[in-house]
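Long-time lurker. I teach an intro course on protein structure, and each term I like to show students one example going from raw sequence to a predicted 3D structure in token notation. This year I'd like something fresh instead of my usual example. Would anyone be willing to generate the tokens for the chain below so I can use it in lecture? Attribution to the forum is fine with me.
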Amino acid sequence: MLRAGGLFILIMGIGVLAGAALPARRRGLLILGGAIATVAIVLFAGRLSAPFGRPSPVQLWFLFGSIALEVVLIRLAIARYREAGERALFLAILFVVGLHFLPMALAFGPLCIALGLVLCVWSAIALWLLPTLPLNGVWAVDGGIKIAFGAVMFLAR
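-- Reply from a regular --
Happy to contribute to a lecture. Here you go:
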């Protein structure tokens, strides 16, 4: 599922990057990116995965399990960071998104581990070590990281 996952991550990265360019529309662009990425993976996952064989039940369980984990962790991040302001809340959510890529590696391949670690480190630096970094800049770098990893995964042969 490497290439299909790459397509999804690439499209999500574009949505995140667009949210950095248009911060007033950040949430809407994130939702739009997620919707487009979901439609793309549903339409093209079979064709993109064909050279590598059908996804195994374990891959599918880890794909859906990672998404479920992400939903639970985002709810916890919202509960913890809601009062801390938009910047802290969004950075905590970016951290959670990075975390969910770690188990997703069993579905989309080992590059997801690297992606997850890079995203977690980046958001952790911005959230806890350098709280003066502007959210739009952090958001743009996060989108760029997703675009880069997604493109590498999508173009894999």
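Some talking points for your students: The chain has one domain: 2-154. The two ends are 12 Å apart (CA to CA).
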